[in-house]
Specification:
alpha+beta; three-stranded antiparallel β-sheet; 17 strands
Length: about 425
Amino acid sequence: MRRSLSRRNVSAARSHNRIVVLCASINDVSSWPFWKFLQLKKVKGVTDLHMLAFNSEGGSFVARIDGSEYSVKNYEKVVGYHQPMLEEFIDRTYDEGRTFFVYGGHGMGDYLELEEYKVGLQVHELAKIFGHRKYEAILFDACFMANLDCVYYLRNNTKWIGASEGYMWEEDVALDAHIFNTYTASAMSRFRDPKTILETIQRDYCNKTRMGDFSILSTEHVEKLWEFVEKHVWQRVYDSTTFLSSKEHEELQHQAEETLSDVNEPNVDGASLVSTSPSQIFQSGTSRKRRLLRAAQFKHALYPSEYEDKHLVDLRTYLQELADDARMTAPIEGELSGSNPVELLEKVVIQHTPPFMNQIYSSPLGGLSLCVHEFSHLSRSLRRNRVDKTKLNERASTYIEESNARAAARKSQQEKEKTQAKELDQ
């Protein structure tokens, strides 16, 4: 269908930036991409926008704002993610020198979750789909995408990335509380400088929520940061990993729930914790590997009480520890000797606005996270793991032994109580 928006000159409108939007809707928010588009088509200044929306319940669509007209084409039989459709969409909509890419949906740092617990488009796979195309900026209207994997793998596809390191908490009932809304879409369409656009988005989003954060990221120096993390950070991440018992995990989750309820944020009603029942996690019938994956706790995890999300850790905190240790002992060796690790990070994290209510996270957000891929449900990392896992394996073995001993003791106690109950009945 096609409708007229105004009598504005179409050729003049096309001088604006082009916005290419990919949406993925799952669960109970299956209609939001369509309502988002209906809202955007009314915005003054948005004159060249393409949207592809995948719906896990069917009813995917492609929409377009073209100067003074708009169009929507439904694909009722396309259920969930369809890669050939995305590839064709990317190829058709790219216009060099004026195209901005926006993703709206679920993000997990190193991948986009396009179908819940089923389909994850890895960031390195998205980069492959982009090919040699270079966008003016890439914006993630999603959780967790201010992540080192994201910046590194998209380094050849853009200079600028805007994203949140933490959760996006808002329900977006009015369709204006998220990162990509009518105001920021207008700015992205009309402003020329990508960094200025991301600064505008940062101010708008962080002024609307006390729990949100936003990073402006540059890909120019990310290779040096990546190399440093490979050589000096990953070993520290694994060496400091511990394992929690069922009781400890219950206490951790209880603390997280109390913190969230104490925040008193008006919009927090829609932010639900991922319910991870310890009775399900730590049951004796669960495989050894799965028990270890779920019991592992990372020193600087953003939200360690959440099994599905706890593999995300704050990079700045590890780098600051490394810098502090280097000042106390010998300087870091190698070709990066003399470099301040935090300064390397700040060449990538150009600006970061942390959440005002930062107590909802167990680690301070420094603008960029790491993914511990082995502990992520859908991650398929290209990174070769070169760390020494001796300490990790020792702790894992100790945890399994102690866990089995506790389970055996509980079983023995239960059998004893049953025997005593039978004796009393007699």
